[in-house]
Amino acid sequence: DAGVIQSPRHEVTEMGQEVTLRCKPISGHDYLFWYRQTMMRGLELLIYFNNNVPIDDSGMPEDRFSAKMPNASFSTLKIQPSEPRDSAVYFCASSSRLAGGSTDTQYFGPGTRLTVL
Amino acid sequence: DAKTTQPPSMDCAEGRAANLPCNHSTISGNEYVYWYRQIHSQGPQYIIHGLKNNETNEMASLIITEDRKSSTLILPHATLRDTAVYYCIVRPNMIYNQGGKLIFGQGTELSVKP
Questions:
Q1: How far apart, in whole angstroms, are the C-alpha atoms of residue A96 and residue B111?
Q2: Which residues of chain B lie closer than 8 angstroms to A55, CB-CB?
Q3: CA angle, corner B86, sides to B84 and B91, nearest 5?
Q4: What are the tens digits of pLDDT across the range A67-97?
Q5: How far apart, in Å, are the Cα atoms of B37 and each of A89, A106, B47?
Q6: Which of A45, A109, A111 sits opposite B101 (nearest CB)?
Q7: Which of these, B56, B57, B63, B58, lies nearest to B33 by C-alpha position?
């Protein structure tokens, strides 16, 4: 398996522009997570989906951020309009609830480094 | 979720065992201890997890005290490639349609030196 795939790997944009980050989870995984990492705040969970349905979006900073999962193999995180304080590395992760079990591990993608000028 | 406390940094000589401690004194009975690591410029990587018993896999060993208030991650023969930030996380069982959240702290920055 190719693992979790994220694109683009690097994004540089200007303040006010729309930014779309993309994620392809591991095939067969039913949970998908979006995280953001900055020096100041560390690694923080933004939102996660189960079977394409958003379960917890309490970490989404504000209305400028939105996430969708139209199908089991694709998710987007959109920022509109972008601001310099959105500069961070954004990670996508996926996991699968083990059959009959109650624990899971999350597999992270390589991240998208976003710079908003 | 229970909080964890880890030393901010540690050094280890290459080839020696690296022992990374974690305190989780408020852990509750159904919470697991997870360890992840993040090598520079990469996404976090799962290492190991456990509930009560000690666990071992190809990457590391996890020792959990009997009262479950602390644990130690052991890398038996550290290499330069083990230099990373190591995160200790406690979280409950993943109940169907709930759970799944990992709350990352600041972790321990492990430097393996030649």
A1: 32
A2: 97-98, 100
A3: 155
A4: 999 999 999 999 999 999 999 999 999 988 7
A5: 16, 12, 7
A6: A45
A7: B63
